[in-house]
């Protein structure tokens, strides 16, 4: 990272954490240059960058000031946390009807689950694919089938290591995307009819996996500021025979919640007491906006009870379908389930990603990607402020690419979904994120595409649709 | 195909079908040239080819003669066909211990499930991978997730069409290899505890899938000459609530049995009467030695009851993990299960195979591959004749790359497995092919690797091990 980028990041972090509030003056070029021992031109470069990123603006003859933050209220799901009953899961029809309808590439993809593929280094990856597959030992098909491509597993273990998590390579199994990993994890620790604690709201694919495996769900509320409600989880574990907890601990889909490290540690400790395994879905791990990668709950796992699932689909190579799981004490069981289910993940795709991680400049790409996502978030938040009713509450996640909106109570998000789709805009309506189809007034918006006039206009249309449903 | 290749194939077929018996004189060059209206040099080329393939040999001044066939007795599993009881499936531990032990690349791979990767055009495929991934539309990740890459599905449908089977593209879903397809098919039509009719012997992965899905099995005997016993299957369907039949109709693994088309038609008709779905595992479809591709049972399906599963793993691209299913009336259900399980198959791998099918010369590769496999079969049969006890019975399949051996009753194949492995030779012992661990005196041998001195020597060692167990 260049010096000016580093300084810009430091300032951005001060803004993000509220040290430098809206309207505050950022340190003058002369002051910053002296205080940090960097040249004035470096400071200028940093401020230009922050300006481009929309965080500060110059006022003639006065210096640089923090932009006013977006005038939207933070979301506060849930309002009255309480222990849920267990529920049969039967949400697939609704989810599929939503997903089917948003496949049209001409639709504005606010309802999509993916960031725009345009943000990924696909040409560079394609070169890795060509060279890795050319050099691939043909016998590896048989010898490395399971637990997966050795160089790829080594690269993943190295990345864990640099983020402070020592993970033996033996624990790592490569899968067909994180979704397969999550399926295998759940299958390893449950029988049909068993109860699993999930988040409310929860990623709909989680609900579908539960439905497919004929599992029951108990919903634990997620707070947009710090994640799953540990008090309610504790009560639930006392009251019900929960066989596993499924949790997205960083940048939860859809709420965007990031559990602070202390709370992740507390979660792992709680589950250790009850000897209940945690399935940690951490596919947005690399998409943090702050200066440091948040540690996963897996980092606090002393008992091998945490099955940590990751993927390259959201940060590097959508469509390659390469994910992994570090499954602790369940590693062998999951490896065997994988062999019985689909043998192994595509070898050239594994080899390509291994090559890219070693030679392709993954960290540089990630830095650009994070800036882009943070920018796009700012643009979407601003648009919400401009076009949506004032009562709208919205999450402001520090990673990922989803906003979670609570619309006024009278708004039916399924209705918003239908009307918006008819006008070429997709959204993800709240009820697909709950087995009990709660969150009727909530929607999830994807800001994972470069912002442009079409997006701005679509937000304006969406705002108009929502307001029309208020009856005023 | 060249003219001389065509003529050579015709003669090979006459030898295979017994019209030209061992020692018979093949038509003289002059006669053949006149009768078929081809030049003498074309006939010579054909005979050279047949000589190289070990089918005929020249005797000085007398012409060409059919080589004596291999002196081994054909296998006749089963001896006393009868309706089985239903069984819980619990064979995985045994299977895994066998599979784990044969991963060493220095072991002679007679126990392997794969042909040698050296027989595949991996460099050509790698070029397809490079060019297809370079040209890939990034948006396809989202738009073509399910049911899969459109060009690939079109190419597969075209191949079906040329073999006389009209299959609408809409029915085709791309999967992570055939194993995932088979998993999804079974899951689509069963609940835990249900009963599935399988072959005896059956491919062990089938047993593992049943075990994973907590299904019960009823075993239907397979005759090495014409496949699953339809009489017994009919009785079983009368007597038990069978929810699905799983069948490898061509070159069954492990017996090598090919069901004649008439019997495939009969099978489909029988299942139509009972309205029981057929899961047709047809991964060896392209590995036929005769002049024509055998039709699958799917070709006779008028009711959408046949789920036909195929793969490129055994004929083109091991390690790419690209398979498919044409699932008739279950197509939508399976597509949704696939979305819930692993979203989609690796896109660059799909694009690469689509490109290769269009431009790479698949048929030329397959012709070479079939010759190679048939050659290798002949070499292994000859080695069995030389080294194994005379009471050994062996299948002589007209496709695939497995021989199924019935050793004398006193031989314990698990013991053979252990002793052979200690000497660096893997085999697949009979009991892993049955939920009731039958076939104690049977072994499956893989002849999918180019024949060489090491293979010959390994066969000699194996023969000695088996004979030592006869106690003489």
Outline the fold blueprint.
The structure is a homodimer of 472-residue chains.
Chain A: H1 3-16, H2 29-36, H3 40-52, E1 56-59, E2 63-66, E3 73-74, E4 86-88, H4 92-101, H5 122-134, H6 140-143, H7 150-162, E5 172-176, H8 177-189, E6 195-200, H9 204-212, E7 216-223, E8 227-228, H10 230-239, E9 242-247, H11 261-274, E10 278-281, E11 306-311, E12 322-326, H12 331-342, H13 347-359, H14 362-387, E13 393-394, E14 402-406, H15 413-422, E15 428-429, E16 442-446, H16 453-468
Parallel strand pairs in A: 3-13, 6-7, 6-9, 9-10, 10-11
Antiparallel strand pairs in A: 1-2, 4-7, 5-12, 7-8, 11-12, 13-14, 14-16, 15-16
Helix pairs in contact in A: 1-3, 2-3, 5-13, 7-13, 8-9, 8-12, 14-16
- Find the biggest chain interface: A-B, 59 and 59 residues
User: Approximately how much helix is present in the residues of chain A?
Assistant: 40-55%
Shape of chain A: globular
Classified in CATH, the superfamily of the largest domain in chain A is Type I PLP-dependent aspartate aminotransferase-like (Major domain)
Characterize the main sheet of chain A.
Answer: 9 strands, mixed
The CATH class assignment of the largest domain in chain A is Alpha Beta
Counted beta strands of chain A? 16
Number of helices of chain A: 16
Distance between the termini of chain A: 51 Å
User: What is the CATH topology of the largest domain in chain A?
Assistant: Aspartate Aminotransferase, domain 2
Mean pLDDT of chain A: 90
Total tally of structural domains of chain A: 3
Unreliable residue runs of chain A? none
Radius of gyration of chain A: 23 Å
What does the oligomeric state look like here? homodimer
Please tell me the CATH architecture of the largest domain in chain A by its name: 3-Layer(aba) Sandwich
Structural class of chain A: alpha/beta
Estimated share of beta-strand residues of chain A = 5-15%
């Amino acid at each position: 990272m260049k010096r000016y980028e580093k300084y810009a990041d430091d300032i951005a972090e001060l803004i993000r954490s509220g040290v430098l509030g809206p309207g505050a003056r950022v340190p003058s070029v002369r002051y910053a240059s002296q205080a940090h021992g960097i040249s004035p031109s470096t400071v200028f470069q940093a401020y230009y960058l922050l300006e481009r990123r929309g965080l500060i603006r110059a006022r003639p003859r006065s210096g640089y000031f923090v932009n006013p933050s977006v005038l939207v209220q933070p979301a506060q799901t849930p309002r009255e946390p309480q222990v849920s009953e267990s529920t049969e899961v039967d949400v697939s029809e609704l989810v599929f009807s939503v997903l089917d309808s948003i496949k049209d590439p001409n639709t504005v993809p606010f309802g999509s689950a993916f960031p725009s593929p345009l943000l990924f280094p696909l040409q560079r990856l394609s070169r890795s694919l060509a060279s890795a597959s050319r050099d691939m030992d043909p016998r590896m098909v048989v010898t490395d089938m399971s637990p997966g491509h050795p160089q790829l597993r080594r690269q993943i273990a190295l990345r864990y290591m640099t983020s402070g998590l020592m993970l033996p390579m033996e624990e790592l199994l490569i899968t067909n995307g994180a979704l397969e990993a999550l399926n295998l994890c759940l299958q390893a620790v449950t029988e049909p009819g068993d109860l699993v604690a999930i988040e409310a709201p929860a990623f709909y694919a989680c609900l579908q996996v539960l439905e497919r495996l004929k599992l029951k769900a108990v919903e634990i509320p997620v707070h947009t500021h710090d994640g799953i409600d540990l008090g309610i989880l504790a009560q639930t574990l006392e009251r019900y025979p929960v066989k596993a907890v499924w949790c997205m601990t960083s940048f939860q889909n859809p709420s965007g919640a990031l559990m602070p490290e202390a709370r992740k540690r507390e979660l792992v400790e709680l589950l250790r007491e009850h000897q209940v395994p945690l399935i940690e879905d951490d596919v947005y791990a690399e998409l943090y906006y702050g200066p440091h990668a948040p540690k996963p709950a897996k980092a606090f796992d002393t008992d091998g009870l945490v099955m940590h699932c990751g993927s390259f689909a959201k940060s590097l190579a959508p469509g390659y379908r390469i994910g992994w799981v570090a499954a602790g004490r369940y590693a062998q069981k999951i490896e065997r389930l994988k062999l019985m289910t689909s043998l192994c993940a595509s070898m050239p795709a594994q080899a390509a990603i291994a090559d890219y991680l070693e030679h392709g400049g993954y960290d540089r790409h990630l830095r650009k990607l994070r800036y882009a996502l943070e920018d796009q978030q700012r643009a979407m938040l601003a648009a919400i402020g401009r076009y949506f009713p004032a009562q709208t509450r919205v999450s402001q996640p520090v990673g990922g690419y989803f906003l979670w909106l609570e619309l006024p109570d009278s708004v039916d998000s399924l209705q918003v979904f239908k009307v918006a789709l008819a006008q070429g805009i997709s959204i993800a309506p709240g009820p697909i994120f709950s087995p009990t189809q709660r969150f009727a007034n909530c929607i999830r918006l994807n800001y994972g595409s470069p912002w442009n006039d079409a997006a701005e206009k679509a937000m304006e249309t969406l705002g108009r649709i929502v307001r029309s449903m208020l009856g005023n």
